[in-house]
Amino acid sequence: MGVTKKGKKQILELLQNQISHFGLGVDPSSESEFAENLGDEKFRKVITDNAIDEETLSMDVECFLGSGEANGHDFSEIGLFDSASGGNMFVISNFPPEEKTPLLEWLIDVVIEIK
Question: To 10 degrees, the CA torsion angle through 33, 3, 110, 32?
């Protein structure tokens, strides 16, 4: 049994309307489908943009950090949420630790695919 193309698009549209914030944390072992929050969240901000790609049936979520934001942490996890604090986490991902410094601006691009 599988989800139809129309069903996938509707799921993405529901997510698009729910996801409003991204959070960054420093726990490199937090990724799990059972996680309800980041392992060690240090920063949260409104997402920059999100768009559905109807050809690939995916959603592209952009998260921007300016040079003056969230400095001094070795981030290794990201989550997508529906509120400025607490709330529901819809996506979690880990990555190799990377230090955020005032010399850097980050544009984080998260792609969500419904399989």
Answer: 10
